[in-house]
Design a protein that fits this description.
Chain A is mostly helical. Chain A has helices at residues 2-26, 33-57, 60-73, 78-97. The longest helix of chain A has 25 residues, at 2-26. Chain B is globular, with a radius of gyration of 20 Å.
Chain lengths: 104, 247
Amino acid sequence: MTQTVLAILAMGAVTYATRLAGWLLLRHARPTGRLAAGLDALPGAVLVAVIAPIIVQGGPPEWIGTAAVILAARRLPTWVTIALGVALVAALRQVQTLGLGWPW
Amino acid sequence: MIDAGPPARPSSAAEARTGFVAILPILVAAAPFGILIGAMAAQKGLLPWQAALMSASVFAGAAQFIAIDMWTSPVPILALALATLVVNLRHVLMGASLARHMHSFGPVAAPVALFLMTDEGWALAMRRGAEGPAGGLRPAYYFGMCAALYITWVSSTWVGAVVGGAMVDPARWGFDFAFTAIFLCLMSGFWTGRRSLVPWLASAAAALLTHALSDGVWHILVGALAGAVAGAVMPANPDTARQGEQP
């Protein structure tokens, strides 16, 4: 019980430290040039790094779902896109479970 | 309005509402993911209040997902803290980039805002800061969206831990894919044309290689750094080269 709470609080403390550190370093700086370009590239790079292995490790349902979400993301509202992706992946997994096999 | 000059600055309440509306689709997708994490925590023996405490103090889905996966008895406190640190090291880079848009945050608001910084909230805040109205990123907008995500996250983990064992396999309903779908949607907001592909492909290649070669979660940090470096060293776009010089 105590161990569990200690572990949770340690995780929380470590996480808050990571959240504060970057801001403490750069809050008075106004990055320009290469540093600014690197920071501009960061948002997309973080998101890609988190999901790339998840997508690659998934199977055909995840790959098709990913393609569908990429196509829909800039055309449909976000919630529609996410709902479509989830429904599509669920449906494709059902097909997989039925053992019909893939046409390739 | 004819020649009314610059548009009126929206009230704080209006800004908070705009932030809430911006995060709403993410709330809908984050709730099932929170329920999933709560259910996983319950299966590992955590009580509902402990699962909620973890969400309230850590508030980072990827880190919690990985920590609960490696949860054993006795609790490996050091290993859990270290894994959490590695997964969340990207926050250092994120906080550094968000700092540019936080000049209107006071000495109390800024540390609280950073406590609430998640991938999703940060991504929306960065977009707001880059293309928002004259005021850029304002605290009301930021707290409007991040507080909503925080409340959703903590309560959905608690619900997940309570219903825990009763839950059927969430993967069967595709709920685990909601996480990927959210991130893909957030990415589309940062697409600025083909040039975006350079840091993205660098990040994907570095993350996949690291993931294949090492256990754990270093791929997140390595991929993020590779993408940032690629963005820094690629030749500047003549159309937007001057943007970096603006305050």
